[in-house]
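Customer ticket, subject: "Can you confirm the structure for Transporter substrate-binding domain-containing protein?"

Message body: Hello, I'm evaluating your service for our small team and ran a test protein. I'd like someone to confirm that this is what the system normally returns, since I don't have a reference to compare against.
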Amino acid sequence: MRKYLLFLFLFSGCTHATMTTVAYQVGEQTIIAPAVRYEYGYAYNIEAKKRLKLVTLNWPPYIDESLCNNGWLFQLTVKLLLQKGYGVHIEFFPWARALRAAELGNADILFPEYFIDAEVMSENRQGKTRNDLMALSTAIPGGNLSLIGLSGRKSNYDGSLESIKDQTIGVVRSYKNTPELDKLINSKQISTIVANNEFQQIHLLMNLRVDLIVADFDVLIASIEKSQLFETEKQQMKNALVALSPALAYKPLYYSVSKANPQWQEILADLNNEINKMKEQDELLSYIEEKKHQCSRK
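Agent reply: Thanks for trying us out. I re-ran your input and got the following:
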């Protein structure tokens, strides 16, 4: 019979209210670790000798402070690191700020990240590529990146980027899309308007300031759901959006480890070992589905 342990972490500067718990395994023991407020984020096992700072964004339905248990990606991330004995400190920021913190070495891990090609330059360190500064983990499940249009509005998109060169596209600040699309954007062959997040993208599209937006459709729908709009407005907005076929790409997600940490290779290896172990044991997809269903029942 497995033993169930409860670790309570109390330290100065934190509130006493516990938040979302995370279950993880050490041998045959299932440990339930509660979070506490720490600085501007959440902390687990904060008294550990090896403590990591992670930066992320609110990006439902994957991860978001408004989601049940902060979303399956939050749960998975904390679990992976706790199982390796790390203390975990997670803060939520707009993506451009989270990216800056990681590239400047002020955070140990940035997540979730799309795959980054070797030639992509840092936005924060002149003359450095993203891969000079960060190292990507083994992939975990993600979603489709698509061009999104308005229902009933004709689009020239035929599956090729050539077909949308005359259109204005809404993108999110500091996001990487597909290498092909980003090259066309960077060379000014496709015009863009930059938004700070997906909800702003939707408003650009609905106000006809752009012809299309680039997004994970599930993130758009979840962003509408978490908004303060009336239910009728939410439904109208969701009904107005359509993902054009074919999708631009299926985009797995990654953890991006800062090479500014002297132990970055060890951290990366620990993450990869835990991810690969779950994959080899056919546990990763079932874990994600379990976390989704836990919240759907609440």
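A couple of notes from the result: DSSP finds nine helices and 15 strands in the chain. The longest strand covers residues 140-150. Feel free to reply with more questions.
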